[in-house]
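Dear colleagues,

I hope this message finds you well. In preparation for our joint manuscript, I am sending the 2,3-bisphosphoglycerate-dependent phosphoglycerate mutase (Hymenobacter chitinivorans DSM 11115) sequence together with its predicted structure, so that both groups work from identical material. I would be grateful if you could confirm receipt.
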Amino acid sequence: MATLVLVRHGQSVANLANVFTGWLDVALTPQGEAEARQAGAKLRALHFDQAYCSTLVRSRRTLELILEQLHQATVPVHAAEALRERMYGALQGLNKAETIRQYGLTQVNTWRRSYEDAPPEGETLHHTQQRVVAYYEQEIAPQLRRGRHVLVVSHGNTLRALRMQLEGLSVAQVEALEIPTGGVRVYELDSALAIGQMRDL
Ligand SMILES: O=C(O)[C@@H](CO)OP(=O)(O)O
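The corresponding structure tokens are as follows:
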């Protein structure tokens, strides 16, 4: 049985300030660092063969803190551009509440959660999914087929997109899916990558 663990990075300074982040490279807050350590504490029973994160510092630092907590600092790590957050275009850096005041809740919810509608100059979730799933198929799935234990630390929208693919979620289900900062999801997979068990920790 292979194990795949998906973790969203801990709270960032932009999350705390309620700012659209996307590809902005922002640090974790002290609470975000604590969430990363808590995620590590929940994973103590597991020994990882391979770990992946995005090239953004909030994801890299979360992974570093998890591995430190697990005393598994020597696990090989790949930081991948493909695992970056959805590119939020013209919304990046804007305050979410202010954007709602300006454009209305319905429009902002559509930009944030719709599968096919892109934020201005940004990526749709569908496009984010194409790059994330291509990376998963190329790099991560072969490890899992060999029965490895793999940790992936990424972002809210990239993980929504990946979970849609892994769990066969509908468009309506992925549009309603919210993943908390520091959220941990564990899958047990057979050699054909069929899901035996999945749970949130
Ligand atoms: O700002 C972002 O990049 C994301 C995740 O923090 O926000 P949202 O939840 O609005 O997609």
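For the figure legend, we might mention the following. The first helix runs from residue 13 to 16. The beta strands are 2-8, 50-54, 77-80, 149-154, 184-189, 195-200.

With kind regards,
E.M.
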